[in-house]
Amino acid sequence: MGSTAGSKKLKRQMAPTFWGITRKNKRFVVSVTPGSHPKKQSIPNAVLLRDTLKKVTTLREAKSVIYNGKVSVDGIKRKSLHYSIGLMDVVELDGTSDIYRLVPQTGRLLKPLKINNSEKGKKIVKVTKKLTTKGGKTQLGFHDGRTLITDIKINVGDSCLMQIPDQKILEVIKFEKNSQALVTQGANVGQIGRINKINDGSFILPKYVELIIGDKKIEIPARLVLVIGKEKPVIQIR
Q1: Are strands 84-86 and 90-93 parallel, antiparallel or unpaired?
Q2: What is the pTM of this model?
Q3: What is the number of domains present in the chain?
Q4: What is the pLDDT of residues 86-135, one digit of tens each?
């Protein structure tokens, strides 16, 4: 049986700050396996349970919980310590009533937000890829690594309110002027603003948007924003 490529541990000094780990307690921490989310934009399953949510106190306890299938991400049990949990993922823990959605908040790339039970089956996903398959159908690729073949008309940059784990699109949120957008990375991470202008960019300049946040305007690359609704967010993110 082959082993998973890459190191399974990481020096604590090199870990992202949003993991919430201590830096001087021990030398190493469990690493994340890139997959559904990029390595630098996600939290490994064991670290989320022990250091971020503080539901257990040791790695041994985390292993027991995870290996016994008591952690579900987007409605699917994940039994790997290194599984990557990232933007908009919904985490449910067996034996507790607590359900969390990982969202950016001001100054922090990812933070667990406790949500209502009625929201655990809903998730916003951003369309990052689009191609036409044999037969004329459209295959969509989303920011969390999932793919879906559909007849729905949708563009790259739009978001979908998706029912999980069924992967059913409940609503399309268009990437357009006056839509509400959440900043997912950068200096303004976690802030919500209204899209005032969309610029297509050029060969050397990326596509960017002008956001109105409170009484200020900022220009930011389109890849760093996620549309979350027309008048207000379609799900709980605060």
Answers
A1: unpaired
A2: 0.91
A3: 3
A4: 999 999 999 889 999 999 998 899 999 999 999 999 999 999 999 998 88
